TrEMBL record:
Residues 41-256 form the Histidine kinase domain. It comes from Chitinophaga skermanii. This is histidine kinase. Transmembrane segments: none annotated. Coiled coil: none annotated.
């Protein structure tokens, strides 16, 4: 009899524990939903004023250049660069909520990926002391959204710059595959442990190493990049060794399925 009572007690305990777990899971889901709603609203609201600040700052910068006010126009140039950084952060937040809801829009067309690399590199290379080495092969056009896939290239370049020592070399390569193209960005930086390699594509994940604390970021770039590459029916992956450097590789097909 005692063992039967004990069994019933255990079953009751188990049922109670399962109910508590379900309740916790529900609460967690509600919290995550609230977080996403907050991010969506906050980033949307921030975008409008920042866009007009940028417009005005550009007008003022042009006028200062016209009036030959060298020092002032230099300050405005710096201001504009900071506004651009802010815009990238806000867009990342907006894209994150959109991609989580499947609402990120794409316009696919034949795209020369070497051109995308050159354009994105031009935007960035003046702002860093790194050496860039290009290993580009002749490529057929891939089916891509030029703006979005360019965002991936920019993210990988920015990370390579951020997470490797000044003046080190960053190698960008492109290769034609039988049915697609493959791009890679390789740095001689701090590298990423095997454990972290599995997590860096997660939303908001950043490696919590003391060294890394000094680098600004929200842990969204790789999440968004891998989502964008997946929407291209491609793959983004990393090869890396701590202390030696990292190589991010992605491929996209020439034609889209379906
Ligand atoms: P963020 O750079 O804003 O933190 P990302 O999603 O782009 O966000 O990257 C996530 C994390 O992956 C970074 O915080 C960093 O720890 C690591 N990481 C990304 N790229 C590199 C790289 N090239 N070398 C070393 N670590 C990297």
């Amino acid at each position: 009899i005692w063992s039967a009572i004990e069994r019933t007690q255990n079953e009751q305990d188990l049922r109670q524990t399962a109910a508590a777990l379900r309740e916790n899971e529900w609460q967690l889901k509600q919290l995550l939903k609230l977080r996403d709603e907050f991010i969506a609203i906050a980033s949307h609201e921030l975008k409008t004023p920042v866009t007009s600040i940028k417009t005005y700052a550009e007008i003022v910068q042009e006028r200062m250049i016209e009036k030959n006010l060298v020092e002032e126009s230099d300050i405005l140039k710096r201001l504009n660069a900071q506004i651009d950084r802010l815009t990238v952060l806000i867009n990342d937040l907006l894209d994150t909520t959109k991609t989580a809801e499947g609402k990120l829009s794409f316009q696919f067309g034949p795209t020369n990926m070497n051109e995308v690399i050159q354009e994105r590199l031009e935007e960035i290379r003046g702002a860093t002391s790194h050496t860039f080495c290009l290993e580009l092969s002749a490529l057929p056009d891939a089916m891509a959204d030029k703006e979005r896939i360019g965002q991936v290239v920019s993210n990988l370049l920015t990370n390579a710059i951020k997470y490797s020592p000044a003046k080190s070399t960053i190698t960008i390569s492109s290769t034609a595959l039988p049915n697609g193209v493959e791009l890679s960005v390789r740095d001689e930086g701090y590298g990423i442990s095997i454990e972290d390699q599995a997590k860096i594509f997660d939303r908001f994940y950043r490696v919590t190493d003391n060294k890394m604390d000094t680098f600004p970021g929200m842990g969204l770039g790789l999440y968004i990049s891998s989502q964008i590459v997946q929407r291209h029916q491609g793959m983004l992956r990393v090869e890396s060794e701590l202390g030696k450097g990292s190589k991010f590789v992605f491929s996209i097909p020439l034609k889209r399925e379906g």
